[in-house]
Amino acid sequence: MSTVAAPSDIRNTASALRRLYFVRAAFAILWALVMFATADEISPVVAALLVLYPLFDVGAAVVDANASRATRSPALLYVNMAVSLAAAAGVGIAAASGIPAVLRVWGAWAVVAGLVQLIVAVPRRRMGGQWPMILSGGISVLAGASFVGSAGAEDPALSSAIGYAVPGGIFFLVSALRLGRSGGQASARSAASS
After folding, report:
1. In whole numbers, what is the pLDDT of the chain averaged over residues?
2. How confident is the model at residue 3 (pLDDT cuts 50, 70, 90)?
3. Alpha-carbon distance 88 to 143, whole Å?
4. In 3D, which of 77, 76, 75, 106 has the Cα closest to residue 89?
5. pLDDT tens figures, 90-128
6. Which of 178, 182, 186 is nearest to 22 (CA)?
7. Fewer CB in 10 Å around end: N or C, the chain?
8. From CA 70, how far away is CA 93, in angstroms rounded?
9. CA–CA separation, 42 vs 135, rounded Å?
10. 3-class DSSP string for the chain
């Protein structure tokens, strides 16, 4: 019995991830633009946007888990769903306490979600388009640590959250473009090795 995914499974997963990554890129950039226009302080709109970002991550992890079933166990994506759901609730609660509390919760979420993204992307390398996801996961871990550190600054700002979303969106876009180019090559390599 072979544990290697069929080329059609890899191709289907790559296609689904490509669409998901395009949506995630567009969402991250749009979110950052709206936040940039409104994030001077924590207003109800800003609090809602801060909660929306990890909730969108939950939805994206659900789509990813469904798309990935044929090629790999989605267990870590379930972890990501739980962590992002907890982050959404935590950010919502922290918003009442101010920017430092939001940055601490946002930072903890970025660290854990980045680790999960990194661990999920490494085995997907053969599919193609995953190096941007690996880099993004590593950068998320570092950014999360900096958010927690900046929460204790004299005048902490939400602008770092915007700075987190923009590169993430770019990494998703690059990964989507690379998946489109390398998806066929990856399924051909998988067929040759089985």
Report:
1. 85
2. very low
3. 18
4. 106
5. 999 999 999 999 999 999 999 999 999 899 888 877 777
6. 178
7. N
8. 37
9. 30
10. CCCCCCHHHHHHHHHHHHHHHHHHHHHHHHHHHHHHHHCCCCCHHHHHHHHHHHHHHHHHHHHHHHHHCCCCCCHHHHHHHHHHHHHHHHHHHHCCCCHHHHHHHHHHHHHHHHHHHHHHHCHHHHHCCCHHHHHHHHHHHHHHHHHHHHCCCCCCCCHHHHHHHHHHHHHHHHHHHHHHHHHHHHHHHHHHHC
Query: 104 is written with which tokens?
Result: 């601490």
Q: Which position has the token pair 């166990």?
A: 73
Distance in angstroms (rounded) separating the CA atoms of residues 185 and 166: 29
Residues 6+ away with beta carbon under 8 Å from 192: none
Task: Say what the pLDDT of residue 71 is.
Answer: 66
Inter-CA distances, 84 with 5, 76, 129, 176, 183, Å: 28, 12, 23, 22, 28
Distance, CA of 116 to CA of 61 (rounded, Å): 11
| The model's pTM | 0.83
Of 91, 61, 93, nearest to 78 (Cα)? 61
